[in-house]
Amino acid sequence: MLLTESEKAKALRSKILDIVIDTLNQKLGGSTKFINQREEDFLIAMAREPVYRREFTEALNKYLEMGNYKYAVYTDAIYKAIFLEKSSEYKVILKLEEKENPRDTMYSEVLRLIASFEVGIADAMKSEHERRKIKTIYKLVKCC
What we know:
Order of helices and strands: HHHHH
Distance between the termini: 51 Å
Oligomer: single chain
Radius of gyration: 19 Å
Number of helices: 5
Strand content: under 5%
Structural class: mainly alpha
């Protein structure tokens, strides 16, 4: 690369990187609004996140008899376990607008942690369903 040590070269490289990341993020539904999106593993984690989330919501739908509010209840339980805040409180703390997704502010490690919770819960529900052969009302374990 011809752009090496000068401050102008660093600024130009940074701008090029922002353009590339912003283009990739837009294709994945994100933006460069949040600094975490410049993290090396962010794009990979953000691309995988919907797959894990879908597995989680499908398990809630298939194995849990609780009405539609179950998605918010379980998402809040996961956020409380990780952040000690409900997802809605987390949005307020970060001053996110209504349509902004809190996960867009998270680093890849946190996205993987949430995915681990979701996949673990989905797997536990599936196992319990296979054992009992009925939909269940699961009790959330109080944490923190």
